[in-house]
What does this fold into?
Amino acid sequence: MTGRQIMTADEIRRATIRISHEIVEKQAGTAGLALVGIQRRGVPLAHRIAEAIAEHEGVTLPVGALDITFYRDDLSLVAQQPLVKGTDLPFDLNGATVVLVDDVLYTGRTIRAAMDALVDFGRPQAIRLAVLIDRGHRELPIRADHVGKNVPTSREEIVRVHLAETDGDDSVDIERVVGAVAEPVAR
It folds into this structure.
């Protein structure tokens, strides 16, 4: 594999802060807002966005975690024994504007699975999407409302998001698989 860094820790921080401002602006405040991170890296990103909103708005938003493992349409292809990370939604979704947060938007299938999972827990007034990276190649009619960075990619490339909470450091790398077709990491 050959790769290069496409976002530094400082660029991730700035993108997260910008997304937090966009979310509040689109909502015209913070009333009724809740953030839900998609396991695994969407969860720390949701917490970072919530911290940024608390810093500039003085309001603590509820943050939850959503495990979509059993909602995936490719579950049989992922693993025989899938790793379940757990869902934690310690607030009422009914009537809330929920912002789903994920690290990479690729085909849209992860987001479709997340929406299916979310409505099993309640009926939000609206569901919005915030992602750190939008790499294109959609297979479903899904788009992000808030994007940290648009990164045009080929299907032979893999986008790897590293976050301090899960990986020990903050960076985003893009890698090209040499001589083989890449299996998608983030859907």
User: Anything to note?
Assistant: Strands lie at 2-7, 33-38, 63-66, 97-105, 126-134, 146-150, 157-162, 171-176. Helices lie at 9-27, 42-57, 75-78, 109-119, 164-167. Residues 4 and 173 are 6 Å apart (CA to CA).
